[in-house]
Amino acid sequence: MSRIGRLPVTVPSGVDVTIAGQTVTVKGPKGELTHTVAEPITIEQADGTLEVKRPDDERTSRSLHGLTRSLINNMVLGVTEGYEKKLEIHGTGYRVLAKGSNLEFALGYSHSITVEPPSGITFAVENQTRFSVQGIDKQLVGEVAANIRKLRKPDPYKGKGVRYAGEHIRRKVGKAGK
To answer: What is the tens place of the pLDDT at every residue in 88-131?
Structure first.
C-alpha cells in the first residue's frame, strides 16, 4: 500500500469539494481548482476528509495512488493558503520593476525583458532585486518561476543571475585558480 496514498486528505472548513465521476473540483476562499483523476483511481468523500482508493495492486494503480493524493492535497492547500516562490537577482545592474501586473527585467542584455503573468498568477516586488510569484496552482507557480529563472540562469563563476531565494550556487574557480 502506498504510504502517501493511504493518508486521508483533510478538508478544512470553508472549502467545498465536489466529485463528479473522475473530476474533482475544490472551491475555497482563494479560488477554484479542478482535476481529472486517472481511470483506476477513485475518490471517496467522508466527514471532512477525502480518501483516495485504488482497485488493485497493478503497477499503474500503485504509481497513480500516491500521485493523485498529493495532487488533491495540493489543490486543497492552494485554495486555502496559496503558493509562493521567492526569487532574487544577483549582479551589477540587474534589477526588476513592476509595470502594472507585469515584471520588467534588466538582466545585462541590450534590451529589457517583460514578463506577463498567466491567469491565476500575481507578481509581488519587494525591492529591485527581490520578487515573488504567487498563485493557487502549485504547478503553475513553479513553472512560471522556473521560466523567469531561465531568463538568466545563475552563473557558476560569478554567481550572477536569477535564483530562488535561499538557493546555493556551486561556484567554480576560474582559469587562474589552481
So the answer is: 999 999 999 999 999 999 999 999 999 999 999 999 999 999 99
Phi, psi of 162 (to 5 degrees): -95, 130
Tell me, letter by letter, the H, E, C secondary structure of the chain. CCCCCCCCEECCCCCEEEEECCEEEEEECCEEEEEECCCCCEEEEECCEEEEECCCCCHHHHHHHHHHHHHHHHHHHHHHCCEEEEEEEECCCCEEEEECCEEEEECCCCCCEEECCCCCEEEEEEECCEEEEEECCHHHHHHHHHHHHHHCCCCCCCCCEEEECCCCCCCCCCCCCC
Q: Check residue 88 and give left, alpha or beta (phi > 0: left; psi -120 to 50: alpha).
A: beta
